[in-house]
Amino acid sequence: MAPFGRIFLTIGIVLVVIGVVFMVGEKFGLGKLPGDIFIQKGNFTFFFPIVSSIIISIILTLLLNLFKR
Prior knowledge:
The chain is an alpha+beta fold. It has one domain (2-68). Helix content is 65%, strand content 14%. The chain has helices at residues 2-27, 50-68, and strands at residues 37-41, 44-48. It has a two-stranded antiparallel ribbon with strand order 1-2. A hairpin with a 2-residue loop joins strand 1 and strand 2 (44-48). It starts with a helix and ends with a helix.
């Protein structure tokens, strides 16, 4: 059962890190950056934060590489 516990602990830590990135990122304009796609036509809205996703990916990659070592 120890490996199962480690998996849950790792998933929990990753979720906490993602939550912190979203909370801190919102203060710096994450989700409203140039390059984020926002289309609104009448009753239809499409939002795809491509640049924000890339930045979050870079930050998480750096953090996970630090924890891995």
